[in-house]
Write a structure and sequence with these properties.
This protein has one domain: Rubrerythrin, domain 2 (Single Sheet), CATH 2.20.28.10. It contains one helix and three strands; from the N terminus they run βββα. A hairpin with a 5-residue loop joins β1 and β2. The chain is elongated. The two termini are 19 Å apart. The structure holds zinc ion. The site of zinc ion has 8 residues, from loops.
Length: 62
């Protein structure tokens, strides 16, 4: 089953860098570190998906 995710916003907690990534399916591909400062403290926000679903997907992804 393909779950459409939509837009995911990734924010770096160290320098404030952020990027919105469009996810056309439930195959989650996210950066593991900040593209600006290489920090790994990234906050992931689903713009239109419930947080519970996001956590489930991230669990599978990790
Ligand atoms: Zn950063």
């Amino acid at each position: 089953m393909v779950i459409p995710i939509g837009n995911i916003k990734v924010t770096c907690l160290d320098c404030g860098w952020h990027k919105v990534i469009y996810q056309p399916s439930d195959v989650v591909f996210l950066p593991k570190s900040c593209q600006k400062c290489k920090g790994v403290r990234l906050e992931t926000q689903m713009l239109n998906t419930p947080q519970s679903l996001l956590q489930k997907l991230l669990k599978l992804w990790r």
